[in-house]
Design goal:
It is built from 3 helices and 13 strands.
């Protein structure tokens, strides 16, 4: 009887669904992202800034997130800032914007964007993101678990993601995918807050069955 219970417990554990890698869906259109995720809970168009504001080695707060660039100094100097007219480089859509530079190779620069609270969706308008060093945006959940990577290769357009299954993103890591320097612009950021992750009932039931069965098997052996 004990061996049969042990077998049943093992079968229950094997039948458990894997706990969850996020369903990570990228979007290239704001309307379709909001149709999948719901109404925005925060937006940022950077119009509240009246002077150029650097986030190179300095944490800057925005509506719903904060950002800091770390690593090698930008080239030329003055990148990684909120760029206010008159613009230092080409902007996204003619208004104040988030002007970033990431690097990979002998010199490395990355940008960390941390959400004020976990989100299930993020999107923004990008420009200049298709240079030779290839901007990539890693999406991280709690515990710095990598949930997916955005590849905004379009020179000018919307890029975003939606997480399903109760997954939550807590930060983004902007980096160069290839050796070199990648300049880009970002504007009109849209965030949708995450709802609480809800455990799958069938998974919990199977876990309970497995451990209860193993306990009963041990008692019977004793």
């Amino acid at each position: 009887m004990a061996s049969r219970l042990t077998t049943l417990c093992a079968a229950a554990l094997l039948c458990m669904p894997a706990i969850a890698s996020a369903a990570f869906v990228s979007h290239t259109n704001l309307a379709t992202l909001l149709a999948a995720a719901g109404s925005p809970t925060a937006t940022e168009g950077f119009e509240g800034f009246t002077v150029d504001t650097s986030f190179q080695d300095a944490l800057v707060s925005f509506n719903g997130f904060s950002a800091i660039a770390t690593g090698s100094a930008t080239s030329p100097a003055g990148r990684n800032q909120v760029d206010v007219s008159p613009f230092d480089v080409s902007n996204v859509n003619g208004t104040t914007y988030f002007q970033g530079q990431v690097r990979s190779g002998p010199a490395t620069t990355v940008i960390d964007l941390t959400f004020a609270s976990p989100v299930m969706a993020f999107g923004a308008d990008f420009a200049g993101a298709d240079g030779p060093a290839q901007l990539l945006i890693d999406v991280f959940g709690p515990g710095d678990v990598l949930l997916g990577t955005l590849d905004p290769v379009s020179n000018s357009g919307f890029t975003g993601f939606v997480l399903t299954g109760g997954e939550q993103a807590v930060r983004l890591g902007f980096r160069a995918g290839l050796a070199g320097i990648e300049d880009f612009g970002m504007d009109n950021v849209t965030l949708v807050a995450a709802s609480g992750a809800v455990p799958v009932p069938t998974t919990l039931s199977l876990v309970g069955l497995a451990f209860a069965g193993l306990g009963l098997a041990r008692r019977r052996r004793a």
